[in-house]
Fold each of these.
Amino acid sequence: MSEVMQKLRTPLLPGVVALALSTAYLIALLAAEKQPLIIGLLAFAVVAVLAAHYLGWLNLVSRSFADREDVLGIYAILAACVVAAFFHDNHFVLLLFVTVLLYTVATLGLNIQFGYAGVLNFAGASFFGIGAYTSAVLSTYTAVPHLLVLLIGGMLAALIGSLLLLPVLRTRGHYAALVTIAFALLLKTFLEVNDVLGGPQGMQVKGMSILGWSFNDNFKIGKIEMSFYLNYFVVSMLLLTGTFVLVRRLERSWIGLNLDALRLDEIAASCFGLDIARWKITAFLLGNFLIGIAGALFGMVGGFVAPNNYTFADSLIMVSILLLGGIGNPWGLVVATLIVVVVPEKLQTIQEYRILLFALVVIMMLLFRPEGLLPRPVRRYFPGWRA
Amino acid sequence: MSRIARQLSFIFASALFVGALVATAQAKDKVKVGFIGPLTGGVSANGLGGRNSADLAVKLRNADAKAKYEYELVVLDDECKPNVAVQVATKMAADKEIVAAATHYCSATAIATVDVYHKFGFPIIVWGAVLPDITYRAKYAEVHRVNGTMINQNDANAALISKIGFKNVAVIHDTTDYGKGHNEYFSKAFAKLGGKIVGTFGVTADQQDFTAELTQIKALNPEVIYFGGLTPIGVRIRSQMDKLGIKAVFDGTSGIVSDAFIQGLGPLAEGSLAFREGAPTEKLPGGKFFMENYAAQKYDNPPEAYGAFSFAAMDLILDSIEKVGPDRKKVIEELANVKARDSIVGKVTFDDHGQNTVAVITKYVVQDGKFVEWDDSEYATGKRKLPGQK
Amino acid sequence: MTYLLEARGLTRKFGGVVALDNLDLAVVPNEIIGLIGPNGSGKTTFFNVVTGIYGAHGGSVTFDGADITRASSPAVYHAGISRTFQRSRLSLPLSIFDNIMIGNHKRLNQGLWFNLIRRGEFKREFEANYGAARTLVEVFEPQLAERMFEPVGGLPMIDRRRIEICRALINQPKLLLLDEPSAGMTHDETKELMDDILQVRDLNRNLTIIIVEHEMGVIERITERCVVLNFGRKIAEGPYRQVAVDRQVQEAYLGVE
Amino acid sequence: MDVGLLAQYVMNGLMLGMMYTLVAVGFTLFFGVLDIIKFSHGDVLTVGAFTALATYIGLRSAGVGSTPLLLLAMLVVAILAMAVLGMLIARYLVMPLRSAPALNTLLITLMLGTVLRELVRLFYPQGANPKPFPALLPTASINLGQFNLRLDNALMLAAGGLAIVGLQLLLNRTKLGLAIRAVAQDEETARTMGVNFTAVVLITFAIGSALAAYAGIMNGLYYNEINFGMGLYLGVIGFAAAIIGGLGSIYGAILGGFLFAALQTIGTVALPFASAYKDVFAFTVVIALIAWRPTGLIQEKISERV
């Protein structure tokens, strides 16, 4: 009965144009050095977006993204590669870019727990840290192949997270919040006082290397010198793509439905056969797994781990990214992470004030646009198809 | 309408884009050098002193007509936190325009960043951190240090307190490599002299309440409490000692040699001991010259204990660049053969680990709200007595 | 005769208050029973105990021959009992289709592999269920069938009620528990809704219904038999006309004791 | 163990517990009336302490010398200022979000906490550095073996106790207290009883924040040092204390506060591992307690309405 659904013919153009513009813009922003220019660019972006909004172009864009996501997704990856290629020898910009990619992966994991299943997790950074420390320990003391290390990082995060399952499952609301908050503090203090893991001093992490290809050395393509961060960009991009697809499919399946159902009304859900515990556990473990993998890779990128990188405050930033982007909307997360990571880096003039401004922005969002920059649309199991 | 507008915005974007590219290309004769230190947080006084001193070195050089380049100082804040330090170090080392830098007051941050400098081939001179491993753990051509290590400092410390006649010492140290290092070297040195460590307590660098630890120490009732850590928790521990009525002598390290320590404690600071490698600034060969120029700039913080070292480090960097040009590799080679080079902190010689060996150690005791050299103090003459001093 | 649902001496307390006091209640297959009584007489509590939201403090419940007294809510659902709620418990941000599918949980493949990897098979299952949901909704309100992917948050009360009932019916339960379907609706709307319910019943003859209702008109029209509760006790049982004239019942409603 | 030593530990524990309790009581008050967590509470404490310090410095430079006068001024100014701040927070950040999910309130107050913290760090002169806080209480002390009882500690302990007792009386003996408890019980009924809901909420926030200021000053007097980060730590511990005690119950907050302090002290002295692990130990126990009693030790009844 496949004629139930027929393919939509939504135009691609708006999406493509939007992507092209934002790519050009991102390059310009990342390349800009002079503060006035950067401020100008940022102001321009705000104006442009608002204008596009009022001229109704944004709707066109979002529609073509909603219906032609598969194609535009690929273009988006290409766009990212263009940016990376443009800055092929600029260590710092690439590092920034990789950071964005990995933070997005982590927030996607958080999104499963919190955006779909409604399981509070104020220890996102802690699980990120568990991943990072895993790669620190394994790369220093063992010869475990590094791709495997990433996997183990994820598993450990999930495993240690599962120690919290009992309280997480038994508590609701604020009581549940305490569980993860307490864990975040506990873990940080533990890392600080425990000598085996370097104490407050932290640990060095060996750079990644796969089949003898060492990620921490610059390399040449033809005559052109490439930054070693390009290696990490490739891996991070693959990781992000994989995670994105996974999260998308999850949402657009009965499982996504289950998670939404239990978030919105546990009682009703369980009256319709939903095993609350089973799905909460699935979401919590899967989320931590993803966060852990991202953390493990980030540990290698940064080359250093210390307790102070994984504090409650950092977890808070992750949650806020979720909120900023629009809870439950992966694209929103990409945008939000980009803003939260890049803007303060570029806008040196606000460096000192960035945390303050960030907090103020979140407050404003909560007051005036609690649904986030890109609110999550109603679930469509097969985008681009009309039933 | 909409198409036109779209084209317009596209043109605008690409225009900015081009403009940005132009903006990235920078002036030739300008050379960037860097400084990293703790500009915020508990030890920021020392960081700012170091920053000003490095800044002074650059200013004097730019004022010098014979200088080949115009120098610009890029300053970053490591907050005395390893993780922040690694971030800013990466940021600075990754910026190709910055040729070399004087970095770090806190050992915890210096030891965390050496690998970064090595990874990026970025030459640095440590201006304040005293942990031996910074230069000796690995043999990195990029890493140098003008100030001495904590080893000699702790030998002097142990020697002094056993000379005064103290036998039992309780040790409190923060659990960073700085504190751990001090604990290790002091305990060794003191044991050699027949002293007894009655108890050792590791504390986290942001701990607030020490009453529990101090109560345990009180029960052990030592004559001296040795503290391996930095000013902020030094202040907390000293004042909480008083709360619990502990009369022992407070014996600190180079980490508490700063005005902030005295301001934080007021009269309680009296009779605290501290040690620092290198002669006191005013007694340095170039001390007078340095102090005068520093004063002339009217900075709003004093140079503090390590300002002179920061100045010397930056001056060495500038000399090298003048000599071999703004090229990281060449600067590294140049720094490798610094031998018996005159500087305001005396002759500088980098051994094969880039370590400058500074034998002389200054012993301080707080007297009337000032860090006074022990030998000039009324405690040495016996005019005043430390609690329990024979 | 064999009962579909049988409660024996069912008791449930809240602190000092006895919400269900040793209640016996039996339902034969294919009938429509009205459960009436003044506020706080234990009607909803009965539903909640049967569906495993509250545990029973005494007595037993058997359904289809199996003891479900201590069964969890999901188990009760899988045994074939669906319900609606007094204050509608739809998931407002979700689409009509999603809400109905929540009710269809037991007939959806929940495997991770199936859901994440085998998208082809998933698509087929999706299409089948979409068709089913659509036809069910059409019975109630053809226009709604055109808006299957709109959030229910935007719909008027009556449509929400309809969807809630669709959610309960989609998995073709043996027993349907309706908790005040008329709450918050006008008289005409209520009438409409009841017609729809009867229509569904005609399509699916072996559906048994227990309905809690304050609108006596509704009770009179659709129930074959009703049970009157007061203070958690059964005070009368029989066709509506009969119980309506019962002295005890009238006293209960007038609150005289 | 030596009795004097034991007494010393108990004293230390009591001081900690008192400060935690004063914070926890605030959390529990706010939760009582609005069923929300106001996470900025700890940072209100910080701001309170810094306000007091500023007042002190100001008066000293104005030539005021008498210690009691200074202390009084600090208390009055800080407490009033924080009370006002508390009301503003309630009015413009918390109440507008009443219809939103509880998480939003949690987040917005968390963020507000960050804002307050950063404001102190950036705009109080050299706010990033720890600030010496004057010791204004008489420091006379009696030495009983290992136990050194200082007058100022004793005074602070008493003062804290008085504050809590006062709050109890206010809640149980006054019309205002009745109104607050009515709102806490059931907002709707309270309204119908003619209680001015908004007013009650604002006053409650004022009281809670005033307590925070009080605790902040106490903290400064005890440690003779304050820093912009002190509130975050105290806030989290206060929150934890209020939760393990059982939200909405004053006794729960008191129990939680002293329990946490006890855990930390025990973690330092009575356990085989290094004293630095005391927080790890304390928070582990907290998580365990929550797993065991999901709604706190002094149970708060939750009736799920179906």
Amino acid sequence: MRYILIIFSLILITFSAVIGQVDPVVTDSLAPVPAPPAPVTEVAVSDKANDHGHALIIEWKRSLDDGAGSNAVMLYEIFRSEFPDSAFKMVGSVPLGNERFEDIGTIEKESRDYIPDNTNLYYRVDAVTIDPVVRTSSEVYGPVQSYSNWFHKGRVPVLTAVLIFGALMVYFVSVARKGTELYVRPLAGIAAVDDAIGRATEMGRPILYILGLGTADMISTIASFTILSRVAKQVAEYQTELIVPCYDPIVMTVAQEVVKSSYLDAGHPDNYKEDSVFYITTNQFAYVAAVNGIMLRDLPATNVYMGKFYAESLILAETGAVAGSIQIAGTDEVGQLPFFIVACDYTLIGEELYAASAYLGREPIMLGSLKAQDYAKAAVIVLMILGLLAINVHLNAFIEIFKVVD
Amino acid sequence: MKKTTLIIMAGVTVLFLLSWIIKALALEGMQEDYIKKAFLVTFSAFLTLSILSFLYRDNPFYKFAEHLFVGVSAAFWMSMGFWSTIVGNLIPRLSQNLSVFFKVHYIPGDFNFRFYIPVILGLLLLMRLSRNYGWISRWSLAFIVGTTAGLNFIRYLRSDFIKQISATFVPLLVDWQGTGHFFSNLDLSASGQLVMMLANWTIFLGVMSGIIYFFFSKEHTGMFGRASRFGIWVLMITFGASFGYTVMGRISLLVGRITFLFRDWLGFNI
Amino acid sequence: MKRNVPLAITFIVGAVLIFSVFIPPMENWGEDFTLFFDIIAVFAFFLGGGNLLRVHLTKLSRRKQDWPYSIVTIMGFLLMLAAGLFRIGNPGDINASLTEQGSLFQTIYDSVFVPLGSTMYALLAFFVASASYRAFRAKNREATILLVAAFIILLGRTPLGTIVTGWVPESFSILQIPNLAIWIMNSPNLAGQRAIMIGIGLGVVSMSLRLILGIERTYLGGDDK
Amino acid sequence: MTSHLMPPLALTLVDIGRILSLAVIAGGLLWLFLRAIKRKEVERRVIFLFIFVSVVAPILFPTVFQEKATPIVKDVFDKIESLPPGSVVLLSYDFDPAMAPEVQPMADAISRHCLVRGLKIIYMCLFATGQGQFTSTLENVIKPEFPDKVNLVDYVNIGYKAGNEGVLNVIITDFKKMFPTDVDGVPYDSIAVFKGIRSCKDLDLVISIGGGKPGIKEWILFVGDPGNVPIASGVAAVVAPLMYPYYPAQMLGMLGGIKGAAEYESELVHHYPQFKNSPTPALLMMGPQTLAHLVIMAFIVIGNILYLLERKKGRKR
């Protein structure tokens, strides 16, 4: 105990000596403690626009000692509180030269960076020197409130497009419902499907239908279901075998339903075999390995690839060619189209796949929507020409219309 | 089984064992569990060669590799999905007790009960296995389709449609400094003015005629037909170019596999 | 119940998500729904696993063609499931990473999954070659254009392009194959890509609308009875 | 490896293998051609064999093709050539191990070039994993080939800072604020390389090596354009076509994919014969690539000859 006391007093003595004597000397020999910088001015806080609330924007005029004057300012620290004079909490910092900070919080109350909506908030900005202790605070700004907006103004062009397209669609669907005949250009790939089914029947070999690697919610897969239902109907009539190996379990369940009801519609429900639509595995190359095997073992007369395809497109199409099958493909995956076009007999390019499903459905509603799409395309061409003219005469206001704020 | 098949099988087995032993001897002293390591390398090489043998023709080795791959991959995604999504994302939001059991960080929240929706829908999906109540799985399906239709609708309209249109607004006269300047500096240099302008013209006309090709409700005859024909040519150049460009990447994949065979398995110094 | 409830679900969910884009307070709904989707997808994997077992057990019990290989599939499936789902051979606690170096799961992944997958992928190198021999033929004008474009790019991506046309003077440098290849990538290629993209964009938009409005309903299957 | 520079009579085993495999491929193609003239299709397995041989042979018996730098690559090379010794170049490693096979050779070759020219190099990275890739350059290039180059005097590694383009936004005005020390904690002011360097605007050249985001595009938008700093890049083949619009106005040159790297390596050896024994991984990778491309092109030609002959015959009948 005594020793501790002695040591403690020794430390005290040394300490006081250091403070009393050495301290001023040390300050002189090191870099001088910078003088407090000039404060930032004109702090202004406003609600962030076009958001769900819980966010504000803080702006200010930089300190006179930022990049000029004594050059002392290194960064700005932003503080927030729910009270005008106390409980300020640092919410972020930005390096010198900046005059703006977005204080974006979360909605969740439990979260640390939660910012309440519709509550008075106060902000201040500190100009901080290299020594974090030496700083100057700005005047407190407030009260200010964050609130959510009910409409995202930056997305007006998108909304306009939605409304125009929706109107076109509704109009043409109603026109089609009235029984007006709408012309649809025939697609080579679709005619080929009919021929190929006949060929398979003649040869007594099965038809392999691949729905691709898409999930049940992808548009290309949904388009493929429509085509599958048509194929299944004809297959049921001709009593040819149909093989549908699936990549995704949900796609498989839908495909089963589609095929089953097609057999029913064709009037041959008893010909439907439960295991003609089956699941393989949800792994790209394992799936391909298995389908390759099926192609060489069952030697289908026709392979139909409709849906979403990735790198496996060429592996499938080339193996199919080895097996001597007629091949018809359709995908909206642009990167894989070249391989299908090169290796298959017929290919539906991108949008043609969707069009094919509408075409096969032959329902007036579907044809009406095709017509609406065509009008939208015409609008695109007109807009493109206008935009081209605008940019070449430097009419930037027109181009600004297409700016989408994210 | 045929006699030749048996002989080949026996041969492969012997080679496999031989490779295992030699590899183990090579690794001995360098790595701890060298016997296991040698087996794994040999097995990987065996699988690699089994798949490559498909190029010759379908055979039992390929069938073996294929069936193994199917089984392993199905379980792989089940496991990953369970531990990363169910345990990682769902349980922390649903139950404190289960979070403690799985030692994950519980995320409390006011509206966490909403995460019962996917659980219920997921269970409905499993009803598919039942013969009589399979139809109820359509409810989950409808939810999935509705979600992506809603998300896609805006996403595509915005990034593939509106943004692509505005990206096609290109100046047709690049760097224009008067007709005299244009003709006096006329050349076919790759970075020259003429070539740059040609590029922008091609982009504009190409996109336009490409879109015309995709008109379905109008017969492709006359002027329209000619534009559509030009459109399909542009598309064909696109496809040819992508094909040619991809070749390099595909070859690299093979280089990777061959490097594995020769360096990691056979021990060549390459 | 069988048809109207699903159609109503699709409509409500789809419409809500479209509105949420324009109404900031609903912004997080899209994220939530995506997360829901991920969770449902895991259930789908289990459905898939069950289906796989069913397919191969049937094959096995009926002694269908190639049935012995079904044993391989089932064994592989069960082994990976044991290592992955039940964490057998995984050192460490329940919260340890599944892909820890040295765990059984990771070992199978490294020495079965990876070589099989990347070799399947590498088959592409062979098929690219066989396709170019077999199918790259100047059957008509379109095929010829495709072929020429591909040929120029192939040439331009190797030293051969420089060797063949390196002598072309700078003022005609667009005719040097490598430069021509670049020009093709940048102009006609871009134009084609964009035309397809706009078309697909429109197609997706209209199909989405049809789905939400309940016009397109093939995905629900057919039997109402 | 670079035995093609040896006297022609000293045939090594590698040379024999190389000649043999080339003979096999050439002979095979000739045979294919003759068969095509006789209008005979060939089995696809033969095609597969061709590809296999043309990829394996250059791996086992490395063949180095001479690459002539295309203008866009040459521009980068010439820029470095033109800088006076003592100039400061910044090399940013904006890639991860997955991209490394394609772009690491570029980083190594450019480092080599800068050091032999007596330029000073500042290494940094916008990818956290870029750090490890720099270590590879340090261990494989700088230490063995330039033992007299001193850290902090001839080159310095300031490492990774989180913030993507935010980092660039700061160093365009002030390096020290973002990088108060180098990776080893040496203070900015005592690093000789930084003498006279306050911000990116004082640099003589910035080269971003990468293939993702953040990468060259961010460098152009946040440093090159606002600061008028000369920028060059080395990028993976996937990204290269997207970057062409910036050349040459905003980006003075670019190495695209393994081919760009190979051209640069070739140009370097051409100007600095002392590097003829340094590893040239990109040039080596071009071997299998070139041969495979060549074989594929031959297939296209032969396939079409066959097709045209068939059609002619069909018409006659």
